[in-house]
Every structure is written in C-alpha cells, then in structure tokens.
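User: Teach me something about this protein's shape.
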Amino acid sequence: MPTFPAGAAGLGAKAGTSVYKTAPDEPHAVTVHGVGDGKADDTAAIQSAIDEASKNTLGGIVFIPSGRYRISRTLLVPLAVRIFGVGASRPVIYLGDNTQGFQKGIANLVVFTGGDIYTTGKVPVPVPTVVPYSDKVRDANSSTFYSALSNVDFEIGDRNPAAVAVRFRTAQHTFLSHIDFRLGSGLAGIYQAGNEAEDLHFYGGRYGILTEKTSPAWQFTLIDSTFVGQREAAIREHEADLTLINVQIKNTPVGIDIDRGYSDSLWGKDVRFENVSKAAVIISNESAPFTQIGFDNATAENVPVFAHFRDSGKDVAGPAKLYRVSHFTYGLKVTQPATVGTVALDVQATPLTTMPAATGPAIRALPGVDKWVNVRTLGVAGDGKTDDTAAIQKAIDEHRVVYFPAGFYVVTNTITLRPDTVLIAMHPSLTQLVIPDGTPAFSGAGDAKALLQSASGGNAILSGIGLSTGDVNPRATALLWKAGADSLVDDVKIQGGHGTLQANGVRLDPYAKTPGMPDPRTLWDRQRPSIWVTDGGGGTFANIWSPNTVAQAGFYVTNTQTPGHVYELSAEHHMRAEIVLDGVENWEFLAPQTEEEVRESQDTVSTEIRNSRNILFANYHGYRVTRTVKPASPAIKIFNSDDIRLRNVHVNGESGFATCDDNGCTTYLRASKFPFDDVVEDVTHKQVVREREFAVLDISSHPAVPTSPDPAMPKVEKLEGGFYSISGAATDSKGQLYFVEHQFQRIYRWSKSGGLELVSDAPLDPVNLAFDTSDNLLVLSSMGAEGTVYSFKPGTPGAPITVIAPTPVVAHKDAFTALPGNYWNNGEFRDQLDPDTMEFTTLSEMFARDAGKSQTREYVSPDGSLVLPAFRVLTQGPTDHTGHRWSDTLQAFGLVKAKVGERVFVSNGSEAKVYGAVVGAGGSLTHLTPLTHRAGESVAVDRSGNLYVANGQIFVYGPDGQEKGRIDVPERPLQLVFGGVDGKTLFILTHHSLYAVEP
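Assistant: First, the predicted structure itself:
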C-alpha cells in the first residue's frame, strides 16, 4: 500500500493535485477570463462565465484556469451547470481577510441554485446565506440535476467566521469532487450538502461539513475524503442519511456530531479516526426509530470514546489506544421477519498493535487529459442526425481512452468496449449516445441488445455520459456490463423519462402524447433493463441515475459472483421493479434510492432479490411520491436467498413543498397515505416485515419460527374486505362507524345490526368525516382549490347536501374541534440553524411551534356543536379537478375531536412520537407532552386512558406511556376509532379491510 501525506486517505494521488492538467477539448465550455492573481476581485469574471454557460437554461460547462481568484460576494451556480478547474495546478477561489458580509451568521462563497419546476413565481424560501442577501435567489432543490464542481480549491482568509465555501443542496446526478477546503477562520467547507461527493479534503474551520436533510430528503454520500483539524467537529449533521466510504477524520474533538433532538441514518465503511478527543460519533434521539447508526470496518487511534449517546450520557469506549471496530450497529433491530423491532446496540471492537495501511481509493482516478482522444477528431459527428455507430466503434477499437465532447451521438447498433476502454464525457445531460426510435437492430423479439456493452472481464471505465434507448426499441438495454471487479461506472445517466434533455433542446415530457404515436404510457415497460450487469460482471458503480420508465428495471444484476459496489444509485419510475438481483453473490449497495411516481409506478416493487446470497443494502431509501393514490406492498421482495443483510432502512412517502401567494410564503410538509405497506416480504417463507424504519435485519434461508401473538392481547375479527383503500372514519351518537373509500367517492356505514351499508356515492371527493352532536355528518372533501366542507344527514338516500363556507374563527361554547389525528412536520426547505446560537430548531420545537398556531377560519357544523379549522390547502399541478390537494386535515388518516381546553392525542410521524396536547382556539395545540417512542398512522384512546397506536401493528400503552402489549392485525392498521353501542369496540381500518377488536 502506498503512503499518503498528512490528511490524505488512500486516494491514489496526492491531495491537491490537479486532475485536469490541461483543458479538455470541449467546444461548448465557457472559460473564465479573470486576473487570477489573488489580489484583483474576480467575482464578476467568474459569475459572467457561469451566466453565459447557463443562458439557455439547459445547463453548461465552465472551465476555470489555474490561478488564485479572489471573490467578494457569493457566486451563484444555476441548474445543470458544471464547473471544472483546469491547468497544471488547481485554481483556488479565495476569500480575502475580513471580507465584508462574511462576519455574521452563515455566508457562502458559492451557492448552487434551483430551477426546473420551481422557477416561476416569487421565491418562497430565498437562500439566507447569499452575500449580499437577495430574496430572488432560489435554493437548489429536488429538481436540481446534473450540477457539479470539480478540481477547484477554496481558501478562506482570516476574520471571516461566518464563511462557508459551498452550499450544495442538490438532487440526483450532482457532485463535488477533487477539492481542498483550507478553511482557516471560516465556519465550514460545506453548508447543506446533497447527493454525492468524492476526493474532498477539509483543513481547519469550525466544521468540515455542516448539514441537515437534503432537499429531496434522501442520502448524501461522501467518498475518499479527509478531515483534519476542525475546531469543533469534522461533520455536524442530522437527517442527511450520511454515507461515508473510505473517509479519514483526525485531530478534532468530534468526528460526526448528530444534532440535539435529531436522528440520522449513518453508515460508514472503512472510516479512519485519529486523535479524536471527545467521540468518534455523537448519537442523539436515541429512542427514535429514525436513529440508525452503522460502521463496517472503522479504525481508531487515540480515540478514547467511539460512540457517545447524547441523551443518556452513555459511552462506548475504545478497548485500547489503537483499535478496530469491525462491526457497529445501533437502532431498531428486527431479529426475524414477522416480528417487530427493539432498539439494540451491537459492537465488535478489538485492540490493534499497528494501524492498518490506508485503504485504496473507492473511486478510480481517470487517466490524464493528455491521454484523452477526442472522438470528433476521428470523424464522429455528434450532431443528433448522423449515424455515428461505425466511427465510434472504430475510435474505441483503436484508442484506449476516448473522450466525447457535448453532443448527441446517434447509434444504430451495439457499441462494444475493449477490456481496458476508458470512455469519458463531462456532462451526461448534454452528452448522450442515442438510439433513434424504431431502429431495426433493436426491434422485434429476441435477446437483449446493448447500446453500450463492455468486454467480459477487464477494468473498463465509463464516466460522465448519458445513454438513451428511445421509446420504441424493445430489445434495447442501455448498458450491458460484464467487466471485472476493478471496473468503474461513474456519473452515468440513463436517459428517458423525467429529467431527459432531447437533441432538439426540449426536455421530454413522459406523460405527453406524441403526434402520430400511441400514448407513451402504452409503451412503458417495453424494453430490457437499463443497466444490466451479468455473466461474471462486477466492479464499482457510483452516482448513477436510472429513471427510464420504458425499461424493465433501472438496475439489474444476474449470474455473477464477482464483487460489486454500488454507491448512491437512484433507480426510479419503472413499472415493476427498480433494482433486481437474480443469482448474485458478494454485492453491496450503499445509499441506494428508489422513487415511485404517481402514474407509472403504482404497482412497482422497489427491489427484488432472487436466488442470491451475501448481499448488503445499507442506508436504503424506498420512496413513493406524496401524490400516490394507490396502496402497494412490499418495498423489497426476496425469493430463495440467504445472507441478505439490510442496514439502515427508510421507507416513506412524505415530502415538503414551499409556495407563495398574496398572503406570503409558506412551507408545507405532508405525508402520503400510500407509502409501501410492508417493507420486506420473504416470499419463500411467507413472512413480512412492517417496520418502515429499522437499523438491522438479516434474511436467512432458514428463518426462525415467528413468535406467537401476545396471548394477553385480544384477537381481531375481520368485518369486511375487498376495499381499494379506506380511511377518514368517524362514529355517530349510536356508535355506528362511517368511513370513506376515496378512490370511488363512497361513504360507508358499518354497524353490528346492519352490517355494511353504502351511505353516499355522490362524486364529491370525500376524504375525512366527523359528526356533530345532532348526527349531522361533516365531510371534508378534496374538491376545489381550498378543499370543500359539506354536510348531510345520513339515513335518507339522496339526502340534501349543505355546503359550508369558511368563516372567521370565533369562540364556540362547548363546541368540539375536529383536528388531524396524525401530522408530519420536519422543516424541509427552510434552514433550521439559528446563526446567532448555532443551534438547530429541533423537530419537537418545530411541531410545538407549528401546531400551536391558530387558524384564522373555520367550518361550523349545522348545529354549531362542531368546528373544523380551515387548515391552509396546497394545490400542486392544475387548479382544476386534476390537481392534487394537501393540508394537515386532508392528509390525515382521520380526525379526532375534543373541546377547547380538553386533552387530545395525536401522532407526529416525523418524530415517531405520540403527543398529548390541550386544544386551543383555531385548532391550535398547546402543552404538548410526548408519550411514546412509536407513532404512525393514528392513535386512539379508550375510556381508561390507554393509547392504541397504529404502527405496523397496534401497540398498546398505558396513560403514562408505558408499553402494555401488542395487537396483531393481518394487514397494516391505518386508522383506529372507538365506537360500537357501548363505545368499547376498537374499529381498525386497513387499506383493504375493516377489522374490530374488543380490548
């Protein structure tokens, strides 16, 4: 193993070395023409080049030559602009001593900004860290794709305590790479991180990285990087789904500091700690299921405490001055399918006599630019019209390293790589290999046929390019990979579906009808997998985005025992499965993310594993968009497999959105009613896991027999079944249950005497129900821009409907207030850091703040005994009936009632806590008291004050919050409502069935 200079991990080259010693031959690039002497102010010159590269709004490439560029204000980098330093030495962006505007709060040298669907209208949440501040700067967001900064160093001069080099709150297919941050007096190198970064080196500063939840709310992965000499912590963060691969942290009080009151899914592979005086990691929010901490092969020297638990004060001490932590997991551990998890700590640490040599780089270096052969000089056109197949193949056959400048390269037959081919581009949206629709070689029935295919074995590299297989090429697979364990696929985008730029300069709308073609939806799921690794293929796959709905799957691996390492994969929007493994051994997926869209992915499984063994998934994020209207289960299906290790699993359907109108700007936080019901299904052994958040689960070919249900708990009875999805239930004065099947706009009634009855099927979009004391049924509907509330008297078919208009909130003596039974609030979009105290607003503080707000309008029932506060409604999409409506009340599985001054119990899903609270005016909640560390879809309270919490199963707690037992239900319980003649029947609504139990 080679040795490295102080502060450098096993990166294969000295930190700070320029990786682009000459500028690539890129006609589309804009070059910065600044002075670069460290004295002249080059801000305007750099910003001018960035603006020029982005003027068509489709993205661009900027080159910054070697030099020392002093700046005096924030540089703004728009959507899809990639900045590369070029020259014998890396260019340095330098903030001079005591630069005005960088002394207080948080102030960024570079801010990556947002675009795409968020470009219109007033900016709802302007970036607060821009110097000088402007309310017109839109932050990078969940639609900020392709942006990048590489091979540019930063240096912060003295007396700039607020300075942070980069704000990078981006989404898929973005990266930071090959950067030294010499932070000096500054606050941090990165404030607000996103997606993926590699070969970063942080020297000094208060922190190296200071970050919270990413804008799309999935993982941030850091690879081959170092931290040296931070004053407080190398990394301070929360909810970042932080994934560390080959990272070194040394000479700092704390390695990773998870903020007070917050959780994170933290996974570290090959992490090295040296001279860390307080703790390698500080763990907060210890009892929350969102707290999932894992390390695989961490080494430590002069690190007396490996893990410190902030809440309890407990420590996991190192066993010696020099030691190895081969295995560390903390969080909810599911010991076997069909059971629930319990919080557990598992540590395997052993003393060492010598520190192991530094691990080699996880991401191989590209050959120097002097070895790149530009395909345009070899007769390749790249004009989106000329058939370049033969010319490209000839270039690859004759040259090991081939470079593709920006352009669209038409391909009509398979391009085959040599075993040692290195194929490079610099922008996978602007540089694409494209198969035209209806290409004969890819048409008809037959085996899969690759657009790009590797040789068997070898160490080929594919970097920075987009691969497009079109819509009507049924045999096409974008990348067929059979290369060996040392091969690399990095920064590759599978085009097609959302986010695709076409050769005509127009972004593809996957929902639009094409003139002369059938509806594209009829063509979905009509191609072979986008990326198919097979027949002994393996290697490393990093920063991959594969969202082509036309393809069978996004990432498909079959018939291989060659090790594979997948880092920060985004596989999305397919119709059956996103990730598929069949006959696979010895693979790991770190920070994989899947997303299911509302139209194409309603029945999609996030991951299928078949006939495989020795597989690791860690920091796994399985997401269904909030707009989803159809139930689905499970996220992960496993067939006939062994030694499947799942670590730090997060399956969700919540999201955030910010919007403005004449009344100002508001951040909305919402939870879908349709995340995956079950997380894992072991099909072979007919077992499921319902825990949506857990740290540890192992799937074996010989699972243990599931434990029997708690005999002290009552058994459930199925009353009715066959529903699409039901919720929104309420009971009348006789204890009869009413509930909604929103998909078919039906309201049902169930009673012991009458069974199931249809009360209403008027096309009025009913969502949630509540009764006043005169048994008038109030119905909250998603109809209209603000939603609608109407009332009728059940019992008479075709009973007249009374639409209730919202009125200003006033006091109503003895009236009940109807409130959401479940909330979601985690502060997305807005920075939660107070720059004066440098403390984050905790989730509990956010919930208390927002739940404590009184609404200004309300809906009053016909007899005045019930009020429903008019929670503000968000409309996304068209303002007519096709748009989506959200509010706290519309997103709730049901409403709960209490009078002002009375106590009510609600679930806050973003914290996984049930709260007791006092109802105030306008639907406000005061005196919030957390009661449990489990919360989910709903909570119900019996007459003795016992709490029944729906969270995969039904967990029963005493009035003091102490767990008393569990009621098992054949399907995932969603809403719990007490009713019946005596009010003691607990009705249990699942998506498809109605159950009951007599506690």
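Now, about its shape. Residues 1-13 have pLDDT under 50 and may be disordered. The two ends are 65 Å apart (CA to CA). If you'd like, I can walk through any region in more detail.
User: That's plenty for now, thanks!
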